[in-house]
Design goal:
It contains 16 helices and 13 strands. With 491 residues, the protein is of the alpha+beta class. The radius of gyration is 23 Å and the shape is globular. The structure holds zinc ion (ZN) (3 copies). GO terms for molecular function: histone H4K20 methyltransferase activity.
């Protein structure tokens, strides 16, 4: 910091005040101003001026706010006060439509201006739509907005054979040109996970606060999920593999990544993960979501059994009780990792928050709403809302891809990847068509080649909302017009 201060414009201040109010509904003006000074250390704002912009009444005092799921980002719920953890999220009957309700909020751990300087977070707060990303300036086709590594790695089951045969890096998913290439390393504990080099190994397993906002390690090979360090996880891992259950894998990794930081990592990171998971990312109980499926009465027994079993396996692997078999080795594993500090035992609230069955179902729902197929959970990417006519493309580009320079814009989009040029799990956000300042950035959660009905049904089933994007509206009008013409012709 140079120490130079600037006076924000009314618009800038209004926006930040709204953001802060949304994410801290219960805080007073003084505390919000303190947070504003943390977020914008270079701003000079008096309390009197700030008061004018921050609404005191809006949602003050409310609990975690529930809003309709509209893609990834909505409303707020930065209430890590441990009061509403197990509130089950259910269908909204009162709003007239039958949208599922999710809890979400702002993620203050992400420095958006650093990761994506031309983009900012916006709270929409209309029609159940919460946060999203908008352009700060004009963006041109082919422009790279930002690149991001997953903060929770989950892989498509089709890649698992490559990983177990040591043909691919567990962290970044680079295919090795030959078995055991020079510089590559294996996990020293289990000899099962293989990495491009030491850097990939350390990103996968240890915390690094350097950060692209992701803070913690990627959990691609979390210590708690390494059979060499925690033999108790083997049963869980083989169940996940046998079921090819990527979502369950994701849940285990989220809990393991929090637990790792909480037990012997960085306490600040543990808090950050806690806030991101329970205060920011859109989440909804998986059970509430699946209860809406027409076939639920026929599958409920099997689904519940599978969930109960996975939950039990997670408890045994990640939070065993002294009565459990294998508890001693687990403790030894933890102790060997501890350096000086003594670990505070988990509080009852923490146990409830992370290890109850209800929480498990919410984490499972969270994975369903936020997981990007190419690699897991991404901190900033998960802010992007859906459109069937998106203006941003998410790409997995090969290592060494070079973004067009400003003078080369507008540019063609990168060509589709082939087996030889397959990318890593680092995602690149590329502008698909001209975007004007203030326009929302959107991606498509579903295959755009599907028909209107197919897209909308998929979005409803998987993400809980009925799409009403420009394209859906246009196509509906065209369909209606066609039906009318037909009706007239037959009349
Ligand atoms: Zn290992
Ligand atoms: Zn790698
Ligand atoms: Zn649509």
């Amino acid at each position: 910091m140079s120490g130079i201060t600037v006076t924000p414009t009314d618009t800038e201040l209004q926006e930040q005040a709204t953001l802060l109010r949304e994410s801290h509904p219960a805080l007073g003006v003084g505390k919000l101003l303190a947070q504003l000074k943390i977020d914008h250390p270079d701003w000079s704002v008096s309390e009197k001026r700030f008061k004018k912009f921050v609404s005191v009444t809006s949602s003050a005092g409310s609990d975690a706010t529930n809003v309709n799921v509209n893609a990834n980002g909505n409303g707020n719920g930065d209430t890590i006060g441990l009061t509403s953890t197990s509130t089950s999220v259910s269908q909204s009957k009162s709003t007239g439509d039958d949208a599922l309700i999710a809890k979400t909020g702002i993620d203050h751990s992400i420095d958006v201006s650093k990761i994506a300087p031309k983009v900012k977070v916006k709270m929409f707060n209309v029609d159940g739509k919460g946060k999203g990303l908008v352009a700060k300036e004009k963006l041109q086709m082919g422009e790279l907005l930002w690149q991001e590594d997953p903060w929770i790695v989950t892989n498509d089951a089709s890649l698992w054979p490559y990983l177990s045969s040591h043909e691919m890096c567990t962290q970044c998913l680079t295919l090795f040109p030959q078995p055991n290439p020079p510089l590559s390393v294996m996990c020293t504990y289990c000899r099962e996970a293989h990495f491009c080099n030491r850097l990939c190994y350390s990103k996968a397993s240890s915390s690094s606060s350097s950060s692209s906002g992701a803070g913690c390690s990627s959990s691609a090979h979390n210590d708690f999920l390494c059979p060499g360090q925690n033999p108790g996880c083997s049963a869980l891992l083989s169940f996940i593999h046998q079921k090819k259950a990527r979502d369950l894998d994701g849940v285990a990794r989220i809990i393991a990544s929090w637990k790792r930081e909480r037990e012997y990592g960085d306490e600040k990171l543990a808090k950050e993960i806690e806030r991101r998971v329970w205060g920011s990312l859109a989440r909804v109980s998986q059970k509430a979501k699946e209860e809406e499926r027409r076939e639920w009465p026929f599958i409920s027994k099997d689904r519940m059994e599978e969930w109960r079993l996975t939950h039990l396996l997670i408890l045994r692997a990640l939070n065993p009780s002294p009565m459990d078999e294998g508890y001693k080795p687990f403790q030894k594993f933890l102790n060997s990792k501890r350096k000086s500090k003594t670990t505070q035992p988990l509080s009852n609230e923490e146990e409830e928050r992370w290890f109850s069955f209800e929480s498990f179902l919410e984490l499972l729902g969270l994975i369903g709403l936020n997981q990007e197929s190419s690699g897991g959970l991404y901190a900033l990417h998960s802010h992007l809302n859906h459109s069937c006519e998106p203006n941003v493309q998410v790409r997995n580009l090969p290592k060494g891809w070079i973004a067009p320079t400003p003078s080369e814009l507008p540019a063609e989009l990168p060509p589709p990847m082939t087996a030889q040029t397959r990318g890593t799990n680092r995602i690149s956000m590329i502008v698909k068509k001209t975007i004007h300042p203030g326009d929302e950035l959107t991606i498509s959660y579903v295959d755009q080649r599907l028909s209107r009905d197919e897209r909308r049904t998929k979005l409803r089933e998987q993400y809980g909302f009925w799409c009403a994007c420009q394209r859906c509206i246009k196509e509906k009008k065209a369909e209606d017009a066609e039906a009318q013409t037909k009706a007239k012709a037959t009349a």
